[in-house]
Design a protein that fits this description.
This protein has about 90 residues and is α+β, with helices and mostly antiparallel strands. The chain has one domain (about 5-85): Glutaredoxin. It contains four helices and four strands. It has helices at about 15-25, 40-50, 70-75, 80-85; strands at about 5-10, 30-35, 60, 65. It has a four-stranded mixed beta sheet with strand order 2-1-3-4, sandwiched between helices. It starts with 5 loop residues before the first strand and ends in a 7-residue tail after the last helix.
Length: about 90
């Protein structure tokens, strides 16, 4: 099973974005990062996709909205992240 597309909306100075990026690096998966402070035209798309959530990061795995870093970390702790990444166990 291949890894689904992972999109993370972020900003330049964002400790939660850094934590999310490090979690994905530990999982050895590539992400597409869209920095909305560098590409402000992407902010509206982020708002639409996230149901109006304005904070960063906003993380999407495939078509599924994960939420922010706290949501991502909770999903990982509960064992739900690896299956979304197409894995059977933690790396």
């Amino acid at each position: 099973m291949s890894t689904p597309d992972i999109v993370m909306y972020s900003t330049q100075l964002c400790p939660y974005c850094d934590r999310a990026r490090m979690l994905f690096e530990r999982k050895q998966v590539a992400i597409q990062e869209i920095k909305i402070d560098e590409h402000p035209e992407q902010r509206e798309l982020m708002l639409q996709r996230s149901g109006g959530r304005r904070t960063v990061p906003q993380i999407f795995i495939g078509d599924r909205h994960i939420g922010g870093f706290d949501d991502l970390a909770a999903l990982d702790r509960q064992g739900g992240l690896d299956p979304l990444l197409g894995r059977t166990s933690s790396v």
